[in-house]
């Protein structure tokens, strides 16, 4: 059968590293990936790592702490099994949907990963989930998508978010795009988006 690799946060990292290690060109039936606010080893000295360094739920200092903890010391460089973005080859990877939290130090990793897959001739789509923070997926059961927030993050001041990272929800691929990319390991033509 067909396999869709999916994971959030560190699970997104594991899904991407798994696909890169053993899932190229449809190997093992891996036909797609959904990465939700994944940590993929992006450049910590720029972009969202700085813009959202003090974000709620996950800070840039937290990211550095988790990296040191995983290796019980300094990170090996480069290591695509830890930092999938450090790989030099993104060819043959399955169609990928990478969803970033809008206010998250890891936000740029999703777009960078999709861009690397595109550059290697693959299909990928990425974008931020509007007005979200790292870990929002874990509280989604408490509210319906599209409803006003009534959770612990309701007081977060969305207008303070970086304008550079904001995209309208209409620019996002829909669930139909995810379903299409998992049908027989094929998705929309490279770069095509299924808009609502």
Q: Could you characterize what this model shows?
A:
By secondary structure, this protein is an alpha/beta fold. 25% of the residues lie in helices and 16% in strands. The protein contains 5 helices and 4 strands. It has helices spanning 10-22, 48-51, 60-71, 107-119, 175-181; strands at 3-8, 30-36, 96-103, 124-133. A 4-stranded parallel beta sheet has the order 1-2-3-4. It starts with a strand and ends in a 15-residue tail after the last helix. Residues 141-196 have low confidence and may be disordered.
Write the layout of secondary structure elements.
Layout (H helix, E strand, L loop, with lengths): L2 E6 L1 H13 L7 E7 L11 H4 L8 H12 L24 E8 L3 H13 L4 E10 L41 H7 L15
Compose a concise summary of this entry:
With 196 residues, the chain is an alpha/beta fold. Helix content is 25%, strand content 16%.
């Amino acid at each position: 059968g067909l396999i869709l690799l999916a994971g959030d946060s560190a699970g997104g990292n594991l899904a991407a590293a798994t696909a890169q290690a053993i899932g190229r060109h449809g190997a093992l039936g891996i036909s797609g990936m959904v990465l939700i606010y994944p940590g993929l080893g992006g450049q910590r000295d720029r972009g969202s790592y700085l813009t959202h360094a003090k974000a709620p739920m996950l800070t840039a200092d937290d990211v550095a702490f988790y990296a040191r903890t995983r290796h019980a010391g300094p990170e090996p460089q480069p290591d695509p099994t830890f930092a999938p973005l450090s790989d030099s080859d993104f060819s043959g990877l399955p169609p990928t949907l990478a969803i970033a939290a809008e206010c998250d130090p890891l936000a740029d990793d999703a777009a960078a990963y999709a861009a690397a897959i595109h550059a290697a001739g693959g299909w990928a789509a990425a974008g931020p989930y509007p007005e979200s923070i790292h870990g929002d997926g874990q509280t989604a059961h408490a509210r319906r998508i599209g409803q006003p927030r009534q959770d612990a993050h309701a007081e977060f001041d969305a207008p303070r978010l970086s304008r550079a990272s904001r995209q309208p929800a209409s620019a996002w691929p829909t669930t139909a795009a995810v379903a299409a990319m998992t049908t027989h390991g094929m998705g929309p033509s490279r770069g095509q988006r299924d808009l609502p």
